[in-house]
Amino acid sequence: MEKNVIIRVKDLVAGYGEDIILDHVSFDVYEREIFVVLGKIGSGKSTLLKHLIGLMKPLSGRIFIDGNDICHSDEATFQGILRKFGVLYQSAALFGSITIAENVALPIKEYTDLRKKYVDALVKMKLNLVGLGGYENYLPSEISGGMKKRAGLARAMALNPKILFFDEPSAGLDPVTSAELDNLIIRINNSLGTTMVIVTHELQSIFAVSHRVIMLDKTSKGIIAEGDPKYLRDHSQNPFVRQFLNR
Questions:
Q1: What is the Cα–Cα distance from 167 to 215, expressed in whole angstroms?
Q2: Which end of the chain has a smaller Cβ tally under 10 Å, C or N?
């Protein structure tokens, strides 16, 4: 059965001024896949993510999100592309002066004309989905780090995106809380079919959630491994890849 490509990166050249970070990088992400981007610090993981979510423009190359070119689109098309995905940032990026429910409601109010009762119902549903039912009126300062991540995930899912991007989702979490977040990611992927793109270097999470990975390398400025992480750990011809995955 042929897989449907939902993200396509073609010959991406990315960098800052004359400092090239990624040089002619190409890969596909398939619908319903949990796809992990890994590599050492400085390998270009964050730079790649910023390009995928439209925060940076490539020096050359193209990025297609659900068939739309995010790099060469007019403003109306670009805004439509942005609605196709949600982002969970490393810090969860919640607004501290408003409640958890109000944080989740922000994108719904911004991008829809739904009446308040429907917004409230959607917010409650999203919070229940991530295990935060009953915490609607809490401020971010009143909940734990793991709960903040889940609240951020609920907000990222507010508009029912086809794709979710995660920036180091396990950062700052203890092993138990990190495993709980991994299980939540798997559950959402299984139940909703949402495509997940995760930037991380946490081995436990990589092996727990990913269907496929790419590994970026600072020296080569590109991809040095692609495939199932367990297979790469045991059978990669690149000793650096095996070493990284056997830490």
A1: 15
A2: N
Q: Residue 8: what are its φ and ψ, rounded to 5°? A: -130, 125
Residue 102: strand, helix, or coil = helix
Contact in structure between 200 and 206 (CB atoms under 8 Å):
yes
Confidence of residue 1 (pLDDT cuts 50, 70, 90): low
Domain ranges of the chain: 33-44+84-245
Q: 3-state SS string over 36-87?
A: EEEECCCCCHHHHHHHHCCCCCCCEEEEEECCEECCCCCHHHHHHHHCCEEE
- The predicted model gives 4-10 an average pLDDT of 97
Phi, psi of 193 (to 5 degrees): 75, 20
Sign (positive or negative) of CA dihedral 160, 92, 167, 13: positive
What letter would DSSP give residue 173? -
**pLDDT (0 to 100) of residue 91:** 82
CATH architecture of 33-44+84-245: 3-Layer(aba) Sandwich (3.40)
CB 8 within 8 A of CB 28: yes
Asked whether 85 and 165 are in contact (CB, 8 A), the reply is yes
* Distance of alpha carbon 28 from alpha carbon 190, whole angstroms: 20
Position 92 scores a pLDDT of 84
**Secondary structure tally for the chain: helices H, strands E:** 9, 10
